[in-house]
TrEMBL record:
<comment type="function">
    <text>May play a role in the correct development and proper functioning of the peripheral and central nervous system and be involved in cell adhesion and intercellular communication.</text>
</comment>
<feature type="domain" description="EGF-like">
    <location>
        <begin position="914"/>
        <end position="951"/>
    </location>
</feature>
<dbReference type="InterPro" id="IPR000421">
    <property type="entry name" value="FA58C"/>
</dbReference>
<keyword id="KW-0812">Transmembrane</keyword>
<feature type="domain" description="Laminin G">
    <location>
        <begin position="971"/>
        <end position="1183"/>
    </location>
</feature>
<keyword id="KW-1015">Disulfide bond</keyword>
<keyword id="KW-0732">Signal</keyword>
<feature type="signal peptide">
    <location>
        <begin position="1"/>
        <end position="35"/>
    </location>
</feature>
<dbReference type="InterPro" id="IPR000742">
    <property type="entry name" value="EGF"/>
</dbReference>
<feature type="domain" description="EGF-like">
    <location>
        <begin position="503"/>
        <end position="540"/>
    </location>
</feature>
<protein>
    <recommendedName>
        <fullName>Contactin associated protein-like 5a</fullName>
    </recommendedName>
</protein>
<feature type="domain" description="F5/8 type C">
    <location>
        <begin position="34"/>
        <end position="141"/>
    </location>
</feature>
<feature type="disulfide bond">
    <location>
        <begin position="886"/>
        <end position="913"/>
    </location>
</feature>
<keyword id="KW-0472">Membrane</keyword>
<keyword id="KW-1133">Transmembrane helix</keyword>
<dbReference type="InterPro" id="IPR036056">
    <property type="entry name" value="Fibrinogen-like_C"/>
</dbReference>
<dbReference type="Pfam" id="PF02210">
    <property type="entry name" value="Laminin_G_2"/>
</dbReference>
Length: 1192
């Protein structure tokens, strides 16, 4: 579409629209300006700069003497004037704000300069009082360019002056424009096996690097890194490779990856030469080992050497093979179908043709869409030919009368690697889509051939219209002239973008965190978090608790648990042993030498050395120790004629290394820096002339056992014993596991008593994702919790009124506000929990258990949060509405903030928080601490427990046929925000809103049995059963059109008369189950498995047998069904059948349970046995089957 505008003299309106403007072109000083013709509905202004130049800024002004201006616009640029590229920031087509009046000048300095010959300004919105019009000025400079054109059979060889070169530093920079998705750009190798290769693979750049010898022991030491996507788009891309020793920076366009090479060596040895554009076979000119690069290279530098410039000057170091030094501009014209419901292109067919052939290239992410449709006949029995993509495969159908469809051809999945469709992880120009067909009865195609017309057939699976790019369209070997259609036939297309392929790879860079796999369609992307241990829209949120202490708060007993010590931070989850002792939950981490070790024959110069490898990584150990209130490690040391210190000068004869490898000479029970043992502190050493029992050097066994408890030195990493070489000398030591308890951050708090006071911390590193959680209590009506700002961007969390918490952020394109309104005041001097999250897909805010507020991000909006100031907590320099009250347990992106220590150094606040709710008044199992005037109480309402501190389990026993039905008040989560068609597609429709959290304990000797079923009115359900052999099975039927799915955590029998604890949560199609005591693994993550051999009858069979046994502490999401049933017997939500017995039982420490303190209650109006006094041999717990009836 060519615009109509005024020539450079700004006088009469011309019928020609393409202006050839010089650099620094200006219309500001002349009358008039540019405006499109009134009939032009898609105008643009195109500038020919005569040569490739570097554009750095653009300025606009309204059209002189009128009320015309441009409110906003896009920029596009091109080298050929045929294929265009949008100017982007953060990989989003950037919308430039324009003018709001006629005379003001609005200038924009480009964040990234443009190197181009042609520039196109596309107005988006004009003046509301007039129309579109502008005056324009372009700023820039000349651009030096050395270009080489490779035809797919050519290469440049850069030969070294010596036989080989060995370097510890390399810098390679270039720009390239490729005509195909494969091809070698750079290659060099040495006889030792070193090599470096940069090549295109399926439209992405791969860098292969090996610095080690090609020896068997070095196999697998090479490093390969992928970057970029869709790089075969005939557009320029920049590459920079920087290597120093083993550290490498690999930049493609503006995306940089930092990595270290594998192996031992740090130098790259290359023999003879480097090749560019291909890998020639030695001794055979014109023969290449890999597919050559086909396209242009520009400004190619190797370690500061301009290779193309040397080739142009025919330097002897450069061998030029079929390379030309100008870049050909043959680029196919593309068209983009922008909408899957409204885009189409109608092409007139020749009424006289007796057959039809079609050839085209397409590029899309969508798995299902219609590419081509042509009606063959009309009337009562119409026929048509349809070419479509169905589940990633090309499908050709001949369709006749209703319900009469013939599959002419079904191709293989358009795949570039096993199991990957073009619509899943890759998108490339498909070249082999050729169709040739002669209709059998010589009927000619009539009317128009329609591309991407949406199917509306009621008897077939509907296919959306095509959404993607097309190019090189040939019908009966005649090219389709897209430019002429655009100019002459505007009625024959809709929602198309000509001359540009607007496809975008939303998975590069990958916004899925913690190893999540990215899948995409044209409009958005989704993260598959299966097996990562994380959940949420971008796999940001941990599934596991952070510590044993956190598991204890949820009511989980002792056992082996999976913990994620830094939450959403970079550390992976790991397994730890949680044990209960002295009313504390201890995290126990073992190592590989827990047994006693006897030492003889060692000297201080040649000591016996033992290194300890712990069951979790050093990073996890450091995080565990830092977050715990107390840690200790027992060192058992017995000796006979073996000293710890030289009795003459105190020189250590034995020692140990701390976690950082620092030598330590103090022993158990003594503070750091004191070369003594615990007997010295206790005053009971065997010989009071010495500070350790062993230093008495007696020929008898003595003991210097003690606890190491200085956290900064734990755990012990190595021990050295050096005085056992004398006759009769020997030592026996045993290093115990690391043991930690408490959470030093959960009650870490600060009190703010001046509105002008605040804490400050370093700038948040939260460009792409951020989660914030904390507790607050206040009596003030409003106040600022925290704030961090940038030039334009900011985040802010505040109590905006007594009952409203507000989360506001701005990414530079306008503020987003999330608000949670509480039905009760939040300034009630009680603790309230706030959690806010923001990522590239959505933002959310939740306060206590109030409904989650969520807003989705716009697909084409800004997604980077760019902050540069300090993080202010409790107030900010720019506001007088500081927070008055207490904040505690502040955590951002898994990093905890020490408010207590920082408050000690800040005026206007105190460390800690006054009140009765503290670590000494902890409510267990998720109970909420509520402060009174002189004490506190634990609110157990939303837990499955009862008692003063929510430690008493609500438990009951069922006989055969006993059941309990509970009507959930909230919609069953499997059905919430879900559609049956969405649920069955799996990959693209995984929902982060569909979830269950279930926890309960049970005991039985009978199987099969049904422990739980939750069912909706439309027969979708979940169930937890025991099989005939007692193994656990979990059932889900999420789709009525398919059988149930099942998951079996293990084959061990749980119907063994022992108490078992089950904790389960489901997120989308990912299920996590924990069984304690552990039967196989502590946790069983897996995707739901389709149950092809499973029927609903098996669930019914288990239900018909009932459940004989006991269950306890039943929690289903926020509901506690058993507790509600037994404590609210008149509730309409509960239905009883037969006999149900009830006992309150403290299960946190069965050896110290409150026996006899909880009166027994009769739960049904039938005969019952009263259970009281001592705890029975088999713990009496809840045994229940409950189902859901939708509550209105």
């Amino acid at each position: 579409n060519e615009d109509k505008g005024e020539p450079q003299q700004c006088q009469n309106r011309s019928l020609f629209s393409r202006w050839h403007l010089s650099l620094f072109f200006s219309l500001f000083l002349c009358a008039g300006g540019w405006s499109p013709g009134s009939e032009d509905h898609r105008p643009w202004l195109q500038l020919d700069l005569r040569d490739r130049l570097e554009i750095t800024a653009i300025a606009t002004q309204g059209r002189w003497g009128s009320s015309d201006w441009v409110n906003s616009y896009h920029l596009q640029y091109s080298d050929s004037g045929r294929t265009w590229r949008s100017y982007r920031q953060d990989d989003v087509p950037w919308t430039f704000p324009g003018n709001t009046d006629t005379d003001s000048v609005v200038q924009h300095k480009l964040l990234h300069s443009i190197r181009t010959r042609y520039l196109r300004l596309v107005p988006l919105e004009g003046s509301p009082s007039g129309g579109m019009g502008l005056r324009l000025e372009i700023y820039g400079c000349t651009y030096k360019s050395d270009v080489a054109d490779f035809d797919g059979r050519s290469a440049l060889l850069y030969r070294f002056n010596q036989k080989s070169t060995s370097t510890v530093k390399n810098v390679i920079s270039l720009r390239f424009r490729s005509r195909q998705a494969e091809g070698v750009l750079v290659h060099g190798e040495g006889q030792r096996g070193d090599y470096i290769t940069l090549e295109l693979q399926r439209g992405r750049l791969a860098l292969h690097l090996n610095l080690d010898d090609a020896k068997p022991q070095s196999s697998g030491r090479h490093t390969s890194v992928m970057s970029g996507s869709l790089l075969d788009d005939h557009l320029w891309h920049s590459v920079l490779i920087e290597r120093f020793n083993k550290q490498v920076n690999f930049t493609v366009d503006r995306d940089t990856q930092h990595f270290r090479t594998q192996g031992q060596e740090d130098s790259l040895e290359v023999d003879y030469e480097l090749s560019f554009g291909g890998i020639p076979l030695p001794g055979k000119p014109g023969t290449f080992l890999r597919e050559n690069f086909h396209g242009c290279l520009e400004n190619l530098y190797y370690n500061g050497v301009n290779v193309i410039d040397m080739a142009k000057r025919r330097k002897p170091q450069i061998y030029t093979g079929n390379v030309t030094f100008s870049c050909s501009e043959s680029q196919p014209v593309s068209v983009t179908f922008l909408s899957s419901t409204a885009s189409y292109l109608a092409v007139l067919a020749d009424p006289g043709m007796e057959g039809l052939s079609l050839r085209l290239q397409f590029r899309t992410w969508n798995r299902d869409s219609r590419l081509f449709y042509v009606p063959l006949t009309h009337g009562p029995e119409p026929a048509s030919l349809v070419l479509q993509i169905s589940e990633g495969s090309i499908q050709l159908s001949l369709r006749g009368p209703p319900q009469d469809t013939t599959q002419v051809f079904t191709g293989e999945r358009i795949s570039h690697s096993p199991g990957q469709s073009i619509c899943e992880n890759q998108s490339h120009w498909t070249r082999s889509c050729n169709l040739s067909l002669l209709t059998s009865d010589c009927r000619s195609p009539s009317y128009d051939t329609l591309f991407a017309l949406m199917s509306t057939g009621s008897c077939e699976k509907p296919h959306a219209g095509y959404q993607g790019c097309l190019r090189l369209i040939f019908i009966n070997n005649q090219p389709v002239n897209l430019g002429r259609i655009q100019q002459d036939r505007p009625a024959n297309f809709s929602q198309l973008s000509f001359d540009i392929c607007s496809i975008r790879d939303r998975c590069v860079p990958n916004f899925c965190e913690h190893g999540g796999v990215c899948y995409q369609s044209w409009d958005n992307f989704l993260c598959n978090c299966s097996g990562t241990g994380y959940t949420g829209a971008t796999c940001h949120n941990p599934i596991y608790e952070r510590s044993c202490e956190a598991y204890r708060k949820t009511g989980s007993p002792a056992g082996i648990f999976t913990v994620d010590p830094d939450g959403s931070g970079p550390l992976e989850h790991t397994h730890v042993n949680c044990t209960l002792a002295d009313d504390k939950i201890w995290t126990v981490v073992g190592h590989d030498h827990l047994q006693p070790v006897r030492v003889q024959g060692s000297t201080p110069r040649s000591p016996y050395v033992l290194i300890f490898n712990y069951s979790i990584s050093p990073y996890h150990l450091r995080s565990l120790v830092a977050s715990s209130e107390h840690c200790q490690q027992k060192v058992t040391y017995r000796c006979r004629k073996s000293r710890l210190f030289d009795t003459w000068d105190g020189t250590p004869l034995s020692w140990w290394l701390d976690r950082d490898g620092v030598k330590r000479t103090y022993w158990g029970g003594i503070l750091p820096g004191v070369q003594q043992c615990s007997c010295s502190l206790e005053g009971n050493c065997r010989d009071m002339n010495y500070f350790c029992n062993c230093d008495a050097d007696q020929d008898v066994w003595v003991n210097d056992t003690g606890l190491l408890s200085y956290k900064d030195h734990l755990p012990l990493s190595e021990i050295a014993i050096g005085d056992t070489n004398r006759t009769g000398s020997q030592a026996l030591f045993q290093i115990g596991p690391l043991r930690c308890y408490g959470d030093r951050f959960f009650w870490n708090s600060a009190s703010f008593f001046a509105e002008s006071s605040y804490l400050h911390f370093p700038t948040l590193q939260a460009e792409l994702s951020m989660d914030i959680s904390f507790y607050f209590k206040t009596s003030a009506p409003s106040g600022l919790f925290l704030e961090n700002v940038g030039v334009r961007d900011f985040i802010r969390l505040e109590l905006s009124s007594p009952s409203i918490v507000t989360f506001t952020f701005d990414l530079g394109d306008g503020p987003v506000v999330l608000t949670v309104r509480s039905p009760m005041p939040l300034n009630d001097r009680q603790w309230h929990h706030v959690r806010a999250e923001r990522n590239v897909m959505e933002a959310s805010l939740q306060v206590d258990l109030l409904p989650l507020q969520l807003v989705e991000a716009t697909p084409e909006g800004q997604y980077r949060l760019q902050l540069n100031s300090q993080l202010f907590v409790g107030g900010a320099p720019t506001t007088q509405k500081g927070f008055l009250g207490c904040l505690r347990a502040l955590s951002i992106n898994g990093m905890t903030f020490d408010l207590n220590e920082r408050a000690k150094m800040t005026p206007g606040m105190n460390s800690g928080c006054p009140g009765h709710c503290s670590s000494d008044s902890l409510c267990h199992n998720g109970g909420r601490c509520v402060e009174n005037r002189n004490s506190y109480v634990c609110d157990c309402t939303h837990t499955a427990f009862d008692g003063p501190k929510c430690r008493t389990a609500i438990s009951a026993s069922f006989e055969r046929g006993t059941s309990l039905t509970y009507a959930l008040q909230e919609p069953f989560s499997v059905m919430r925000n879900q559609d049956a068609k969405q649920l069955q597609s799996g990959t693209y429709t995984e929902s982060v809103k569909s979830r269950e959290n279930v926890a309960f304990g049970f005991l039985t000797r009978h199987g099969p049995a049904l422990l739980l079923t939750a069912q909706s009115n439309d027969q979708r359900y979940m169930a937890i059963t025991l099989t005939q052999n007692g193994s656990l099975q979990i059932w889900y039927r999420l789709n009525q059109e398919r059988g149930p799915d099942t998951f079996s955590p293990g084959s061990a029998s749980l119907a063994d008369g022992q108490f078992h604890w089950i904790r389960m949560n489901r997120e989308g199609r990912e299920l996590y189950v924990q069984v304690s005591p552990v039967t196989s693994l502590p946790l069983f993550p897996s995707s739901l498995v389709a149950g092809t051999d499973i029927t609903d009858e098996e669930v019914l069979r288990a239900g018909s047998r009932g459940f004989i046994g006991c269950l306890s502490s039943f929690q289903f999401n926020e509901a506690a069904p058993l507790k509600a049933a037994l404590q609210n017997k008149g509730s309409s939500l509960v239905t009883y059948m037969l006999i149900l017995y009830y006992i309150a039982l403290n299960i946190n420490d069965s050896s110290k349970s409150d026996r006899g303190n909880a009166p027994l209650k009769k739960a049904a109006q039938n005969d019952s046995a009263l259970i009281g006094g001592e705890e029975p041999q088999e713990a009496t717990l809840l045994c229940t089957m409950f189902s859901r009836n939708d509550a209105q």
